[in-house]
Amino acid sequence: MSRWRLFYHVVWATSGREPLITPDREAVVYDELRAAAERQEIIVHAIGGTDDHVHMAISIPPTTAVTTAIGRIKGASSHALNLQFNGSFGWQKEYSVDSFSERHLDRVMSYVTNQRVHHAAGSLWTTIEPGSIE
To answer: Of 117, 79, 73, whose CA–CA distance to 95 is shortest?
Structure first.
């Protein structure tokens, strides 16, 4: 396929909502998520989160089912992070995914990358935060 524009905002929580994505682990977690996505030819526009959940703004090729793509990202990143963190990392089964138009990409990317700020300020998009998907 020569051209496609498919945008998704994906959110999921850590296993048991444990605070596993601490600031000192954040870069490692995001690197593993990015690597897992890029191995599937998924375009990662932004990654962000807090200690107990992650947001990604991504573009999934139309040749890959959304559920398959997300499952692979979660599985591969969890496996890699367990190796790095001595078996103490996991994701919940559930996730939330919303599609959006390209005209909203900058806004979604800003929201995703500034998760800690939004949580501290209480300026959340409540319909997509993990509490609404459990």
So the answer is: 73
Residue whose structure tokens are 């954040």: 26
Rounded to a whole number, what is the distance in angstroms from the first to the last CA of the chain? Answer: 36
The Cα-based distances of 103 to 5, 6, 55, 106, 108 in angstroms read: 11, 12, 19, 7, 10
For residues 47 and 30, the answer to whether their CB atoms sit within 8 Å is yes
Q: 7-132, which class in CATH?
A: alpha beta
Q: Where are the domains of the chain?
A: 7-132
92-133 residue pLDDT tens: 999 999 999 999 999 899 989 987 666 556 665 555 666 544
To the question of pTM greater than 0.85 for the whole model, the response is yes
Q: What is the pLDDT of residues 6-49, one digit of tens each?
A: 999 999 999 999 999 999 999 999 999 999 999 999 999 999 99
